Structures are given as structure tokens and as C-alpha cells.
Amino acid sequence: MRVxxxxxPAAGLGTRFLPATKAIPKEMLPIVDTPTIQIVVxxxxxxxxxxxxxxxxxxxxxxxxxxxxxxxxxHTLAARGxxxxxxxxxxxxxxxxxxxxxxKHPLGLGHAVLCARDVVGDEPFxxxxxxxxxxxxxxxxxxLIDVFQAAGLGAVAVMEVPAGQEHLYGVVAGDPxxxxxxxxxxxxxxxxxxxxxSRLAIVGRYVLPPDIWPILAETKPGKGGExxxxxxxxxxxxxxxxxxxxxDGERHDAGDRLGYLRxxxxxxxxxxxxxxxxxxxxxxxxxxx
Length: 289
What we know:
- The protein is an alpha/beta fold.
- It has a single domain (5-275), classed as Spore Coat Polysaccharide Biosynthesis Protein SpsA, Chain A (Alpha-Beta Complex), CATH 3.90.550.10.
- The chain has eleven helices and 13 strands.
- It has helices at 36-46, 61-66, 71-79, 83-94, 109-114, 117-120, 140-151, 212-218, 229-239, 257-269, 272-288, and strands at residues 5-9, 30-31, 34-35, 51-56, 97-102, 125-128, 132-135, 154-160, 170-178, 181-189, 200-208, 242-246, 250-253.
- A five-stranded mixed β-barrel has the order 8-11-9-10-12.
- The N and C termini lie far apart (55 Å).
């Protein structure tokens, strides 16, 4: 079945970026000049997604506004001869159908995904976390959709993390079925140091069948007192099966301050009008130290 819908959880408080996120959603923090949420939405659209379900929170209406028509701004830019910039803004509002659903209580990622159940309905869907950016030759979530369609099973993106960092992630273990593909037998959310079943960590992209809904609805609070998506996925792996897949491309953790800075540099270096200046600036800063 074709994957048409995607969920982007965006109701978090963004405490790691305070005070910047006191009044600005962390998802609106820019990578050079493009909000992180737009980069994630563009990835979904390039993979064929037609509808985004944004799981939103109080004080985050700017996320919806960003994907709405800005008539006054677009009209002013066009009147001043900045037609190309006006058209660029217009494309943002027309790239995808966006539905906003409020998560009224911070009960965890599993609960955030469950908030979209009535909108998504009885069809497969993708989940993209806004902190994870993928610079890939082909949209990361599109690669995962291919895995889902080929296997007929839910799929999650994973990467091997350095030893000692497993406790920062949901971690999976299982039996290899092909290069870069593992059939999951066990999952644990942020395992205690020294207890991780492997070094394969889940990294922000999921494609799931509707079978996950009743499992999520019955999932009790786990790590941190929250409803963990990992716990529900473990149930799905046991009952229906679940595939872990490594993806082509470079992942940036934009939810971490150093990762965010790195993402800005990496995306700036991809732009011909900025690359030389960024390299010169980096050399200048290094020489000052």
C-alpha cells in the first residue's frame, strides 16, 4: 500500500536551546536561512508524501503560519520587484497539505504519534522527527518507504553509534537478513550504560503499518514516565515483525547544540554562493585560536 501521510511530532519545549526557544519553537530555528521543520517537510514531500500531520503544542502557532499563505509579505515583495523571493515563499504554502493536531499533555513520543490516529486512519504512515536531518542523495524517509514496501513490514531507520552512547537512543537487536537490514527481535529505550543489546540506534525515521495503533493505545508509560514509541514498536516487532534499516546519507542531530552548529556548516557548504566564504571564515576562526 502506498504511504501518503506522515506525522511530524513538534510539541516539545525545546529546553536544550533555551533561552532561544522561550518564544520561538525549536523547529523554527534556521539551518542557514531555512527552518529545520521546512527541511524535514521537504524531505517528506520529495518522498511522495501528500499530507503532513503536525503534532503541535501551545505557543507554537508559528509552525502553522510558516506553511500558510503570507499574502501581505508576498504582495510587498512582488511590488518591490523581488518576484523570485515572493515565488519562493509561495511555494512553501503550496508544497503539501498540512493538518495540525494539538498534543495537550507532554506524555511522550508514543502519545504524540497516537494523537494523529484519527487523521491518519487505517493506512500506513511515516514518522519524521524534526531533530534529525538527513543530507542524502535520495530522501531518507523515501529509502525507508522502499524497505517497508519490499518487506511488507514496518521499518525504522538505524545507525551504529559509538560505544558508550547507546544510552542516548532507542536501541535495537535482531537477525541480519541482508546488508544493512535487520529483522528486529528486541528493542529498548535508552538502555542503562553497559546493558544495550547492540549499538544500532533508532534515528528519527519510521514507516509503520496501521497495526501499531491498538498497540500504542495499550502501551503504558515507560522510561521517564512517558509513553515510549519504542515500547510500542517492540510489541509490533513481536506480533507482526519489524525491520531496522541503515540509510544512505549523512545524519545531523539538530537537537544537540554542537550537532545544530555542524548542520549549519554542512548545509552552508552545499551552497555555491556561501561555500567559499564559510571555508574562509572557518580558517579565520581556527587561526584565532
